[in-house]
Amino acid sequence: MLHIEIDGQQVEVAAGTTIMEAAESLGIYIPFFCYHPKLSVAANCRMCLVDVEKAPKPLPACATPVSDGMKIATASRKAKMAQQGVLEFLLINHPLDCPICDQGGECPLQDITMGFANPHSHYNEEKRVVEDKDIGPLIATEMTRCIQCTRCVRFGQEIGGIKELGATGRGEHMAIGTYVAKAVKSELSGNMIDLCPVGALTSKPFRYKARSWELKHTPGICPHCSTGCNTDVQSLGKEVLRVLPRNNEAVNEQWICDKGRYAYTGLNAPDRVTKPLLRDAQGKWTEVSWAEALDAALAGLEKVLARHGADKLAGLISGQSSNEELFLFQALLRGLGSPHVDHRLHQQDFRADAAMPLYPALNMSLEELEREPLIVLCHGFTRHQQPLTNHRLHKAVLNGGKVVSIDSMRQDFNFPVTQMVAEAGEDLALYQQLAGHLAHVHEEKQNDALVHLAQEMAAADNPLILIGSALLHHPQAADLLAQVESIAELAGGRIGWLADESNSAGAWLSGCVPQRAPGGHLLAEPGLPAGACWNADMQGFILFGVEPGVDSLAGAQAVQRLRDAEFVLSISQFGNEARQYADVILPMAAFAEGSGSYVNNEGRCQSFRAAVKLPGEARPGWKILRVLGDGLKLPDFQYNELSEVSAAWHHAVGDYGMDIPPFHAFPVLEAVQPIAAGELLRLGDWPIYQGDPLVRRARPLSTPLVARMHPDQARQSGIQGEAVEVSSASGKVTLALELDTHIPLGCIWIPLGYPETSGLAAPYLPCSVAMAALLPETQRAS
Amino acid sequence: MLSEKSLKAIAFERSKYPPEESRSALLAALRIAQEEQGYLRDELIEYVAEILGLPAIQAFEVATFYTMYDLKPVGRHKLCVCGSVSCFLNGSDNIIRHLSKTLGISPGETTADGLFTLQEVECLGACKDAPMMQLGDRYYENLTPESLDALIAQLRGGSEDVR
Question: Are A180 and B42 a contacting pair at CB < 8 A?
Answer without folding.
Answer: yes
